[in-house]
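Late entry, evening session. Most of the bench is empty. Finally got around to the prediction I had been postponing all week. Sequence below, unchanged from the version circulated by S.P.
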Amino acid sequence: MHNEIAPVSAPRIIVALDFPSQVDALDFADRLVPTQCRVKVGLELFTAAGPQIVEALRQRGFEVFLDLKFHDIPNTVAQACRSAADLGVWMLNVHTLGGPRMLSAAREAIAAAHGTRPLLTGVTILTSHDDAELVDIGLAEDAAHNVTRLASQAQATGLDGVVCSANEAAMLRDSLGPEFVLVTPGIRPQGAAVGDQRRVTTAGAAVAAGAHYLVVGRPITQADEPMTALAALRAEIGED
């Protein structure tokens, strides 16, 4: 029997801890309030700090999204997902371009997790890619077409949701239903710099389009008052 996952719930904003070391990440995390956000650990921080960063954040009361975008042969990804589940992460992800056998293996691997199993989401098309770059890497259709195809495959293989641009959220919500979890990076306050992202939007627009969770990095981590910036985004989505 598969364990139940937690329903979509507040806090809906996930702060991306894109820092080069555990010391930097935890120093910043100590400026946040765990009841008002979740946190994301990505490739940079996990490579620098290892699994202990997840435990340190969990000890501080944070629910952790482990954003490593696993993409390898099915057995290797299954083992990695099982290890991530054992760390007690709230959410993890794989890359949908790994194909249906890999996605199914990942889903089966976390089904036996103790207690509440983590959410398993799939990355479709990175928000740093625009349509021209997709052509350059050999994906002939535009981002919307590729995202729809990959998200449908993720749902068919039992994933809980996908990571996608808010530009595709409404389309996916209509085609995949209200329960399929949509996690949206590329969130920027109105008028903020977009950095290296290409398909970006505001927090309010993302939620209106159907996004469940919003990943926010630099607008919070580089703010003079991170909790003030977080509070403004929470107010924008009606979460206060």
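Two things to note before I forget:
The radius of gyration is 17 Å.
The beta strands are 13-16, 38-41, 64-70, 91-95, 119-123, 161-163, 181-184, 213-216.
Will write this up properly tomorrow.
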